[in-house]
Amino acid sequence: MAGQGRIGIVGLGSMGLGMALSLKRAGFDVAGCDVTPAAVAKLVAAQGRGADTPADAACDADAVVSVVVNATQTEAILFGDKGVAETMPKGSVFISSATMDPDVARRLARQLEATGRHYLDAPISGGAQRAAQGELTILASGSAAAFAKARPALDAMSAKLYELGGEAGQGAAFKMINQLLAGVHIAAASEAMAFAAKQGLDIRKVYEVITASAGNSWMFENRMPHVLDGDYAPRSAVDIFVKDLGIIQDMARTAKFPVPVSAAALQMFLMTSAAGMGRDDDASVARMYARVTNTKLPGDK
């Protein structure tokens, strides 16, 4: 058994596998499960342990890290058939990395804490490469006891750990502000690049100029190379922002707070998804602009 303790991890996609490997590198005994057997095999090849179900991964774990897409999947992992709440030891902590409505995070925390386990609301940011390097940004909130139990695992997975409040939901709310900005910036970057192509500009030169100018953003700099290369293999999919910007609309409607800019960005992601690109890279919004305006981008036939 590794010296740091035992961690169960549910969800071994591009983020979850990197997090699992970072935990393994830090000396944890890591058991992981995923709906895709090949993903589990990658963890086993790195000397981790495979688990058939979330319940198996959580057995005897000090902490369970859930790296899935949304609240529905998180709730199923917690309380569904062969869920982790069945087998997590009393006093252990569930670390939830999914992006979700803060109200849902609060509800899930109350349900789990009623069973004698801890819940840490801990959305993540940074992408697959930083996950693999143990250099994520983690936006966490929860009880002091949840933080104390989770801290060794959090330290192994993150370069920046923000402690954002004493109850679940605060981390989720911070993440939604980040997602509002990220979605708007991707949509704006895609619009600008497609518009530049329509003007007959050399879009590689556009990228060079903008990344050295005031109009640059992290998303422009990070995503527009995908457009330049005509490479839309998913690093982060269009449908992620359909979900997240949709949550923002729901939150804003409840608060009676206008969010017209993010609403416009949501429509572009929805249009891109409806055109069959929902599972493609989120820079595919630029392809949608190009198709609508009969504009040629790299990789177009």
What is the topological layout?
Blueprint: E1 6-10, H1 14-25, E2 29-33, H2 37-45, E3 49-50, H3 54-58, E4 63-66, H4 71-79, E5 93-96, H5 102-113, E6 118-121, E7 124-125, H6 127-133, E8 136-140, H7 144-157, E9 158-163, H8 170-198, H9 203-210, H10 218-229, H11 238-255, H12 260-277, H13 285-293
Parallel strand pairs: 1-2, 1-4, 2-3, 4-5, 5-6, 8-9
Antiparallel strand pairs: 7-8
Helix pairs in contact: 1-6, 8-10, 8-11, 8-12, 8-13, 11-12
Gist of the model:
This protein is α/β, with parallel strands linked by helices and 301 residues long. The chain has helices spanning 14-25, 37-45, 54-58, 71-79, 102-113, 127-133, 144-157, 170-198, 203-210, 218-229, 238-255, 260-277, 285-293; strands at residues 6-10, 29-33, 49-50, 63-66, 93-96, 118-121, 124-125, 136-140, 158-163.
Account of the 3D structure:
The chain is globular. Helix content is 54%, strand content 12%. It folds into two domains: 162 residues, Rossmann fold; 122 residues, Orthogonal Bundle (N-(1-d-carboxylethyl)-l-norvaline Dehydrogenase, domain 2). Strands 3-2-1-4-5-6 form a six-stranded parallel β-sheet, sandwiched between helices. It is built from 13 helices and nine strands. The longest helix is centred in the middle third of the chain and has 29 residues. The chain is an alpha/beta fold and 301 residues long.
